[in-house]
Amino acid sequence: MTDGKHALVSRQYLIPFILVASLFFMWGFTRSILDVLNKHFQETMDITISRSSMVQATTYIGYFLMAIPAGLFLTRFGYRRGVVLGLLLFATGSLLFIPCDAVGSFDFFLIALFIIGCGLVVLETAANPYVTELGDRATGASRLNLAQSFNGLGCIIAPAAVAPLLFSDSGESNVALPYSVMGIAVLLVALLFSKISLPEIGNDSTIKENNTGRTLGFLLRNRHFMSGVTALFFYEIAEISINSMFINYVTYDGWLTPSTAAVVLSFGGLGLFMLARVVGSAIMSRIKAEKVLFVCAILTVTGALLVTFNLGTVSKIGLFSCYAFEAIMFPTIFAISVRGLGESTKMASSLLMMTPLGGAVGTILMALVADSVSMAAAFIVPVIAYFVVLIYTVRALKLQSN
Asked: Helix, strand or coil for residue 298?
């Protein structure tokens, strides 16, 4: 891991890599809870799928609105302070669940989730590009896939850990407990990061505030980068909306109960997702990232189409294949997009981290189709989104071969 010409992580950066990788676990855990929370609010507050989709939508609107401020903050104050700011926002939103639960207002919960989203985007804006720089440029995509595997671990644990608190035979639930525990834990991690030293990577420190407009202009004119932003936006439409609708899909025909579905989401869908990221990281240390991305894009389009056709067991296999083959998409597209951007990397990361807004768009669109047609028909949304990613991979392959 730390030896050789193209080491996955340079020896001098091993400790920073481990510390930052722990953040990937934290936001994976938090984002995965949303998928259980969505169904929980449908049952406890008697709201429609469209209304409950605001759980994801509000969180990812926070991503969209906070992304550029996060990039500006990182450019001026560096990675470590950016991580601490993100953790403090994250903790604040989590602890607000205590008064929200006492009031029992869905809108108040959305405010807390918006603050959590703002904190998560600061963390992701800092951590994703930072990890790509902790070693040789040639292994950037593979290194980010490895770090994102910790994100997958958090995703696996969260639904299974939280579901017993939100779904029970007695009908009682305690939504404040997991968030209050998480808020306290995040505050302790913020204290740790406020005391440690993270090396600043790259030449971003040379950027001054009066160059922000010029940097944004450069990025917006960069066709390679903007293609990556578009691909990542559509990937988020597919990934987040499928996660959001998973429990609804596997329960609407009576196949699973909500509590069982949460466990299947954890160890089936998200477990497969994490395993695929680990395998993908190993594969991309030997095969060009663009080639792996191309194959995975074809297979995700196929899997989502199978769900849309509502073919029973075959469609359910298609659903799980989406988890397996989408796993490497986010870190790979991200790493390809920021490759060679040098001093513009932090600002580029902030623009890329606006793309989870696609999750809000996709979740709302799927919910509307599900309410008006059927859950299976709603999967036409990720079919289209994966197809856009496929178009991007074809272009990326052509560019890589030149």
From this structure: helix
Contact 169, 46 (CB under 8 A): no
Structure tokens at 291: 């080639």
The CA distance from 71 to 79, in Å, is 10
Spatial contact of 87 and 196, defined as CB atoms under 8 Å apart? no
Angle between helices 54-77 and 345-352 (to 10 degrees): 170
Q: Which 8-state DSSP code applies to residue 344? A: G
CA distance 187 to 17: 20
Q: How far apart are CA 349 and CA 337, in angstroms?
A: 9
- List pLDDT tens digits, range 291-307: 999 999 999 999 999 99
Burial class from Cβ neighbours inside 10 Å (0-12, 13-18, 19+) for residue 98 reads middle
Radius of gyration, CA atoms only, the chain: 20
Which two tokens mark 122?
């600061």
Distance CA 167, CA 358 (A): 28
CA–CA distance, 379 with 361 (Å, rounded to integer):
13
Question: Quick one: tokens of 268?
Answer: 């089936």
- pLDDT, one tens digit per residue, over 344-382 is 887 888 889 889 889 889 989 999 999 899 999 999 999
Half-sphere exposure of 360 (CA within 13 A, CB side): 18
Please give the Cα distance from 400 to 81 (Å, whole number): 35
Contact status, residue 77 vs residue 89, Cβ threshold 8 Å = no
Integer Cα distance of 125 and 354 in angstroms: 9
Closest to 305 in 3D by CA, of 196, 387, 182, 239:
387
How far is it, in rounded angstroms, from Cα 321 to Cα 318?
5
Three-class secondary structure of residue 134 per DSSP: coil
Calculate the CA 17 to chain-centre distance: 19
Whether the predicted pLDDT of 207 surpasses 60: no
pLDDT at 308: 96
The answer to whether the beta carbons of residues 270 and 159 sit under 8 Å apart is yes
CA distance 303 to 326: 10
What does the alpha-carbon distance between residue 353 and residue 229 come to, in Å, rounded to a whole number? 9
